[in-house]
Amino acid sequence: MKEWAASTGIAYITARRQYAAGTLPVPTYRVGRLIMVGEPVTGVTTGTGQTVVYARVSSADQRPDLDRQVARVTVWATGRKLAVDRVVTEVGSALDGHRKKFLALLSDPAVTTIVVERRDRFGRFGAEYVEAALSAQGRRLLVVDPAEVDDDLVRDVTEILTSLCARLYGRRGAANRARRAVEAVTEDGPA
Q1: Of 25, 32, 34, 36, the residue nearest 135 (C-alpha)
Q2: How far apart are the C-alpha atoms of 6 and 20, rounded to whole Å?
Q3: Which H helix or E strand runs over 140?
Q4: Which listed CATH number (3.30.230.10, 3.60.15.10, 3.40.50.1390, 3.40.1380.20) goes with 50-143?
Q5: Whose CB among 1, 42, 135, 155 lies 3.0–4.6 Å from 35's, allowing a Cys bridge?
């Protein structure tokens, strides 16, 4: 928003006040702590872009959850008058930055809207950066359920511990060590 205020000749603090009052003359949205100004998108992506539903699970054991995710997100998107052009499903950890389908989706300029069930389905960390990069290209990430659940946070900590234990001790006993570490912390309770 700072760049927009400077380009229109108004003070940044005035733009902030107008944003807070809801009287800013342009559409805006938040990406983390940033206030992004939604200016009209020109070029190839206007009106001709694809809407893609992206669903991901961490392991093959959770594969049945993919269908549930796809169904929920597709119903949500069609309820908002978004025509779903394609569905992309993937099995892989959110901590893995080398998911082939995920990277192909990000690099495809024809895809202008990506719809996910929850932000962690897209990536555990740095989702704000991905959203900002997509926004800079005139693309967007829509999240059906933006709220994080405490269970998701516990799962995040478990995955991080598993990853660290795997690096320290090898892959073989990493999951068990991480599980024991989480159990030890939860037995002791909060300090």
Answers
A1: 36
A2: 18
A3: strand 140-143
A4: 3.40.50.1390
A5: 1
pLDDT digits (tens, 9 = 90+) for 49-85: 888 998 888 778 888 888 888 888 888 888 888 888 8
Strand partners, 51: 113
CA atoms within 13 A on the CB side of 23: 5
**Which residues are catalytic, by number?**
58
Q: Which of 13-17, 78-82, 96-100 has the lowest mean pLDDT?
A: 96-100
Read off the amino acid at residue 115: V
Token pair, residue 61, equals 């054991």
Closest Cα to residue 86, out of 107, 97, 70, 100?
70
- Which residue has tokens 């940044």? 12
Buried b (16+ CB within 10 A) or exposed e, 150-175: eeeeebbeebebbeebbeeeeeeebe
